[in-house]
Predict the 3D structure of the following.
Amino acid sequence: MRGGIERKMARWGVAFVMPAIVFFTLFSFYPIVSAFLTSLTSRKILSLLKPDFVGFRNYGYLLSSSDFWNSIRATAVFTLGTFIPLLIFSLVIAFFITGMKRGQRSMQLAYYSPAILSSVVAAVIWLSILDPRGLANQFLNTLLGIQGVDHHWLASSVMVQFSTILVYFWKYIGYFVIIFITGLASIPPSVYEAATIDGASRWQSFGRITLPLLRPTIAFVSIMSMLQCLKTFSTQYLFTQSGAPGAPINVITLNIYNTGIRDHLIGRASAMSIILFVIMLGFTAVQLRVSGGDKVSY
Amino acid sequence: MYTPVTPVQKIAHYLVVTLLIIGAAAVLVPIVFMITASAMPAGDILAMPYRWIPRGFHVENFVRAIRGNDASFIFLRNLLNSFIVASVVTLTTVLLSSITGYGLAKFKFRGRYLVFLMIMATMMIPFEAIMIPLYLVAVQLHIQNSYVGLTLPFLVNAFGVFLMRQYLLTYPQEYLDAARIDGAGEIWIFRTVVLPNCIPVIATLSVITFRTQWDTLLWPLLISQSEKMKTVPLYIVKFAAEKYTDEGAMMAVALLASIPVVILFLTMSKYFIGGAAVYSSRKG
C-alpha cells in the first residue's frame, strides 16, 4: 500500500518535469548536436543538394583563415578590455558605496540605470554621442584643452574597438556593482570591528579582509562577465550596420551570423559555433573548479 | 558602515564621496542626453557646445519616430509585437519553471537529480552556438515571421527552473501532506497551495524574463524578415541605419522603446535589484 503511494507520487513528479525535459531536448540538446554534425558538412542554406560530409575540413579552413583569427582577436580584445575594467571598477565602487552614510540607495540606482535600457538603445545613444560632431569629441577636446579635433570614435580601427568597450562598460557597470554590494553585505560587520580594534587601517581591512572573503563573488563576477563578453553581438552589429568599419569589431558571434545567414555557409558557421561553445565550456569548467572548492569560513 | 575619525580620514571620506558622485553623474550623462536630444531639432543636437536644456519641445521627433521614414506607422506594430512576445515568454517561463522546479524539489523519482543536472547543463550552451540549427528547424516548420517562431526557443530556461527549485526546496512538506490527507488533487495543490506562496520569486523571475526578452535582437533578426513581424530592437537597428542623420528622431525612438522597461523598473525596482542579487547566489 505504502509502495503504491510512493509510486503514484513518483509518477506525478515525472509528469511535472516532463514538459521541461521535452523542451530542453528539442531546443538545447538537439540543436547543439545538430550544430556539431552540420559543422562536418559543406551545407549551404539554399542548396537543395544533399550536403557533402567533409570531416573536419571546416575546422581546418577556419584555423588557416585570417578572417577567423581576426574574429578571435576582436573577441579577445573586447573580452579582456571589458571585463577587467568592469571587475576592478565595480568592486571599488561597491566598496565605496557601502562605506557611505547616506544616499547608498540613490547611488546604486544611478549606477544601475543604464542596465535597464536595451543593448540596442544603449548602442544608439552612444552612436549619437560618438558622432564626429557629438558630445564625445566636445568633451575630450575640452578636457585636453584643444579645439575642433575629431577623434574618429567610430571610424578608426583602434577607436571603434574602444567605443564598443565603452558602451558595454557603461551598460553593465551598475549590474556588477549591485552584485558586489550584495557580496559585501554578506561579510559580518563584526569582522571589521575586530580588525579596527586591532588597529587595522581601512586599506588594510580592504586588502586583508574584504578581498579574501569576497573571493567567491569575484570569481563569479569575472566568469559571468567574461562569458557575457564572449557572446557580445548587439553593439557590434548596430555599429557596423550604421557604417563603422567591420573588421576591427568583427567579433565571433557577428562572424557566425554573417557567415551563416548572409553568406549561407551553414557548415562553416556551425564549426565556428562549436568553437565558441567549446571556449565557453572551458571557462565554465574553470568557474566550477574555482568556486566549487572555495568555501569561505569566517 | 565606516566612520571616519581623524581629519585625514574625513578628507579622504569626502574625496571618495565626491568621486562617487562624479562617477554617477558620468553614468547618467548619456541617459540625460537621450532625453534632452529627443526634444531637439537635429541641428541643435550636434551644435557645439551641446545645449543641455532644449529650447522648447520639438514634437516632430516623436511624430517622425512613430510614423517612420516611410509613414507606415510600423513602429507601433513592432512595439505591439515586442509586448506580445515578451509577455508570452514571461508567462510560459513562469509556468513551466514553477511546475518543473516543484517536481524537482518536492517529488522523489528515479533520475530526479540527473534531470536537474541535465537542465543546468543547458546553461552552458550559448544561444549564439545553436541559433543556426534552430533557424533551420524554424524554416522547415514554416514558422518564420510568426509569434510561434519568435517565442518557441524561449518558452522556459534553466535559470528559471533553478530559481523555482531552490525556492521550493525550503517549502514545508507538511502543508502538502496535509492537503493530500484532505484528499486534494495534485494539480489543485500546486495551484492553490504552492503557487500563491511563490509570489516574490515569481515576480523576480517575471521581471528578469520580460526585461531580457524585450532586449532580444539576435533571434528575431534571423526569423523576422517581414516588417510586420519585427520587434522593437530590429526596428531601432533599421531606423538607425536608414536615417542615421536625424539624431532627434533616433533619440525619440530610443526613448519610446525604453518607456516600458523604465515603468517596469520604477514599479518593481525591488525585484530588478533582487534579480541581480539572485544571479550572484546562483553559485553557492
